[in-house]
Design brief:
Elements lengths: L10 H9 L5 H5 L5 E3 L15 E14 L5 E7 L7 E6 L4 H13 L2 E7 L1 E3 L2 E5 L2 E4 L11 E3 L8 H14 L8 H6 L5 H9 L9 H4 L4 H27 L11 H8 L6 H14 L6 E6 L5 H14 L3 E5 L3 H15 L6 E4 L7 H10 L4 E4 L13 E6 L7 H8 L6 E6 L5 H5 L6 E5 L10 E6 L3 H13 L3 E5 L7 H18 L5 E4 L5 H12 L5 E4 L12 E6 L7 H8 L10 E6 L5 H12 L3 H12 L1 H5 L1 H4 L13 H17 L1 H12 L4 H4 L1
Parallel strand pairs: 4-7, 10-15, 10-16, 11-13, 11-14, 12-13, 14-15, 17-22, 18-20, 18-21, 19-20, 21-22
Antiparallel strand pairs: 1-9, 2-3, 2-5, 3-4, 5-8, 6-7
This protein binds adenosine-5'-diphosphate and magnesium ion.
The site of magnesium ion (MG) has 4 residues, from α11.
Length: 684
């Protein structure tokens, strides 16, 4: 796309720059340094400190090619600054041309300007592979700090610096925001902020504000970045409201009848969010609501009530879960709830693909009232006749692309996403700002909190005894096998080994095994046996992580707990404590623990609240990993930090709303500067 804004660089360089996301001048302007080097003043060699980057100058007093211990070129320079004014430059790899140029410089008595760190070598003070230049005559020193940019193979700092300096001269740096508003909120003008960050005055090097990105210039850039993010999210949100969706006005009393048939009453929080969802479904544009609530708070029934409303209005509902085990649990539960009320519930997963049954199921799915399944539901094949509502359980397990694919299946059906992974406030305000949010902040009555115990592997015997005691008391236990991320094959072996060991250690108990490699009917059979109480101890891989609901299970043992992530541990722990029995989660770990592993286990030991755990997780891992760019569909923030810059997130959100309302042209210019053409995903 050659535009007026295209980069003035050879095609080969342009291609490499694309890898860095640099396609336009504006991109270069916003490509900010990682750090700086000070080449504004020359230090006398005799005074130069060890281990700190310095600029020195001197003439070559010797140039030697040494062959031992390995081939190297050693250039000795001196600036006659007194005792210790000699410095060796050592090059272990060099070109012949380089050697000749240095030889020339020595003969002509030319000066070298050198930047690097001095260290104490075997034969005295030296610099290894410093950056240097042979000076022709008295070349002026830099008058600002030298930026060091993130770069990629084949694009040197020098090339990047020249391109960026050029872009800064040619690009439009005009102020896009209201100047008074900016100064009221202590935001520097855009042009001065970027100019400063690309070429700061030397005195700023000592100030930490530049390095830790708290300087006013950084503040402005971070604000602009957050504003662009808020604007794109908000635009996607508004665009959705322009699309039509069926108004799901229930003709009957299905939802009321379902509620009346339940053995429990809804909690206040469940009633509140069910009403929020019901109101959304009556709107003529697609709902996109995230239903959040800690494990075990009862999200499924809220989803079932929404499905009732859609069915009553004459539309179909698709209900997706990330794994077959979970999808099947949902299917069984929904069927038990809804079939007595005359609703036809259909089961559809990927493993049915090749059989004859698949064709029949696909056929049935076109008209079934409620279809439950895995993401097989969004793969080709089903033509829903009247899809009105899509429910996605454990939303954080699906990528944004899968979600969009699903939406295309019907004429913009309403979407209800559910997640037990709570989103900390700053994340909710940024990456998830295009969704409406409902939170269930209350557990059903009668739950007793799960006790968490930490055991070193050396005390495994005590854990085995605890399993025995639990089963003797009529309860059941889960035993989660070590996670082996790098290989599914090894993980399977570990699961088989754990099962064999436990079967020997607890030979009088009934031990079941559940892992991802079982055929789906085998998985279903094991799960059914556990639900029916025919298995005492279920040895499982993390396939049970999400959604599994067996109220009689009161002990969860997690082997090698130090290998699991925080949200995984929290989810696993949530598999127990679902009935009224006292429940325990044992975290077995293998010492010695790394510092992060220790920090993670401490968090899970000390906190039961999923929100607090997620907040700490965010701190330990950072938002990039927390949501994954794949899932966010939004370019990850490069400069702003959601924790540190929380105040800027709020401010950006405020201004984004105001601009879109009152000054859409300004909003568009700002987005163009920051996002350019990288906004496709959001428009879908
Ligand atoms: P999650 O939010 O983790 O998906 P579930 O929907 O699986 O939770 O509900 C957990 C368990 O609590 C289920 O057995 C469900 O039937 C039960 N449950 C849900 N709501 C209530 C309630 N209001 N009172 C008692 N039990 C409930
Ligand atoms: Mg659930």
């Amino acid at each position: 796309m050659p535009t007026a804004d295209a980069l003035d660089a050879p095609a080969a360089i342009r291609k490499r720059l694309q890898k860095l996301g640099l396609q336009r001048r504006d991109d270069l302007v916003l490509h900010l340094p990682l750090r700086y080097e000070d080449e504004t003043c020359v230090t006398a060699i005799a005074d130069a400190p060890i281990g700190v980057p310095v600029l020195v100058e001197g003439r070559l007093v010797d140039l030697a090619l040494r062959l031992a211990p390995r081939r190297q070129l050693v250039a000795r320079i001196s600036d006659a600054s007194g005792d210790g004014s000699v410095l060796d430059l050592r090059f272990l790899s060099f070109y012949g041309s380089q050697q000749r140029a240095l030889e020339n410089a020595r003969e002509r008595g030319q000066k070298l300007r050198i930047f690097g760190e001095i260290r104490c070598g075997f034969l005295g003070r030296e610099m290894v592979h410093p950056r240097y230049r042979i000076l022709s005559d008295d070349e002026a020193l830099a008058d600002s700090l030298t930026p060091v940019y993130p770069t990629t193979a084949g694009v040197s700092q020098g090339v990047l610096r020249r391109l960026i300096a050029g872009a800064l001269r040619a690009a439009d740096l005009s102020e896009l925001l209201d100047e008074d508003w900016c100064s009221r909120h202590s935001l520097l003008p855009f042009a001065s902020a970027v100019a400063l960050l690309h070429a700061p005055p030397p005195e700023l090097l000592a100030a930490t504000a530049l390095q830790n990105r708290s300087h006013a210039a950084w503040r402005r850039v971070k604000f602009d970045e957050l504003l662009a993010q808020q604007l794109s999210l908000r635009r996607a949100y508004l665009a959705r409201r322009q699309k039509g969706a069926p108004v799901l006005l229930a003709a009957g009393q299905l939802a009321d009848r379902l509620q009346a048939s339940l053995p429990f009453a809804l909690t206040g929080a469940q009633r509140r969010v069910a009403a929020e969802v019901a109101a959304d479904l009556l709107q003529p544009y697609p709902m996109q609501r995230l239903l959040q609530g800690d494990v075990g708070c009862g999200k499924t029934i809220v989803a079932a009530l929404a499905a009732c409303q859609a069915i009553d209005a004459g539309y179909q509902t698709a209900f997706m879960a990330p794994t077959e085990i979970l999808a099947e649990q949902h299917f069984l539960k929904l069927r038990a709830w809804l079939e007595p009320l005359g609703v036809e519930v259909l089961w559809l997963v990927g493993s049915l693909r090749k059989s004859v049954k698949r064709a029949q199921q696909l056929q049935a799915a076109t008209t079934a009232q409620l279809v439950v399944g895995t993401h097989a539901l969004i793969q080709e094949g089903i033509d829903f006749a009247r899809l009105g509502l899509v429910i996605v359980d454990e939303q954080h397990r699906f990528g944004v692309v899968q979600r969009l694919e699903l939406r295309r299946k019907g004429a913009n059906p309403h979407q209800l996403m559910m997640s037990a992974t709570p989103i900390p406030r700053t994340l909710a305000m940024s990456y998830y700002a295009d969704l409406d949010l409902s939170v269930i902040d209350e557990l059903p009555p009668g739950r007793s909190p799960v006790k968490t115990r930490l055991f070193s592997d050396a005390r495994r015997d005590e854990v085995i005894a605890a399993v025995r005691a639990v089963v003797a008391g009529g309860r059941q236990a889960y035993w989660v096998c070590p996670l082996i991320e790098e290989s599914a094959q090894l993980e399977l072996q570990a699961a088989l080994a754990t099962h064999a060991t436990l079967s020997a250690e607890l030979h009088d108990l009934r031990i079941g095994l559940l892992h991802g490699r079982l055929r789906s009917d085998e998985k279903a059979a094991v799960m059914a046996a556990f639900v029916a109480g025919e298995i005492d101890v279920l040895v499982a891989t993390t396939v049970i992580e999400v959604g599994v609901d067996v109220a009689n299970a009161s002990l969860m043992v997690i082997e090698h707990a130090e290998r699991f992530g925080l949200s995984q541990l929290h989810q696993l722990r949530g598999r127990v404590g679902r009935g009224s029995h006292d429940s325990v989660c044992v975290l077995l770990y293998q010492p010695p623990l790394s510092a992060t592993a220790r920090a993670r286990l401490k968090v899970i030991f000390e906190h039961a609240d999923g929100f607090e755990i997620a907040r700490q997780d965010l701190q330990l891992r950072g938002p990039g990993e927390f949501i994954g760019s794949r899932q966010s569909g939004v370019p990850l923030l490069r400069y702003a930090d959601l924790e540190v810059d929380a105040d800027l997130v709020e401010l950006a959100r405020e201004l984004a709303l105001q601009l879109l309302r009152a000054e859409p042209a300004r909003a568009a210019s700002h987005l163009r500067r920051w996002v350019g053409n990288r906004e496709e995903l959001l428009k879908a």
